[in-house]
Write a structure and sequence with these properties.
Layout: H1 2-10, H2 24-35, E1 46-51, H3 54-60, E2 75-82, H4 89-106, E3 110-111, E4 114-115, H5 120-130, E5 136-145
Antiparallel strand pairs: 1-2, 2-5, 3-5, 4-5
Bound molecules: flavin mononucleotide.
């Protein structure tokens, strides 16, 4: 349990990466963690586009002003959800994304959640760059690489946000 909490606190948004590639094994481990997430009715309505091509990553970096680090990360995961298969696709793919981020931290890799949903313009851009079909929604981009910046682990525990037996 202590180790698990340490990992949760260690996960920080890392936006600078070295040129060192991320191994296929590490990519597989992160995808396995993502797909181990809980989902409503266990429908697992997710799909993942793994983007390593530099030209495509440069285009993903243009999604919006806060997605620029996609150009510098050796791999970008694009987390998608089938809207028609589950009304809970946002929650399900969000759970998968957090698992992916935790797995990255566990592998000593750096990663950050780059939001796409609910910005329809950003989503249309990603859809066009990667040929994602209509109906398959885009939740977020997750650039991952070996970290070129470090941030301290931290808790954000705030007792004022906790309410026992009613608000
Ligand atoms: C839904 C969502 C969207 C986010 N979008 C972006 C983004 O577009 N660009 C970015 O650099 N960080 C983005 N982040 C990362 C947050 O800025 C970050 O998690 C927050 O500042 C807390 O820092 P920490 O992750 O290091 O704990 C996003 C996080 C979430 C959960």
């Amino acid at each position: 349990m202590g180790e698990m909490l340490d990992l949760i606190k260690k996960r920080r948004s890392i936006r600078r990466y070295t040129d060192e590639p991320v191994s296929d094994e590490a990519i597989r481990t992160m995808l396995e963690a993502a797909m181990a997430a809980p989902s409503a009715d266990n429908l697992q309505p997710w799909e993942f586009v793994v983007v390593r091509d530099a030209g495509l990553r440069r285009q993903l970096a243009q999604t919006h002003p806060w997605s620029r680090m996609c150009a510098g990360a050796p791999v970008v995961f694009v987390v998608c959800g089938h809207e028609s298969r589950s009304s809970h696709w946002v929650e399900d793919t969000s759970a998968a994304t957090e698992n992916l981020l935790l797995a990255a931290a566990g592998l000593d890799l750096g990663a950050v959640w780059v939001g796409v949903y609910p910005d329809r313009g950003a989503e249309a851009h990603v859809r066009k760059v990667l040929g994602i079909p209509e109906g398959l929604r885009v939740l977020c981009l997750v650039p991952v690489g070996h970290p070129a910046e470090s941030k301290p682990p931290r808790t954000q525990y705030d007792p004022r946000k906790v309410h026992y037996d009613g608000y």
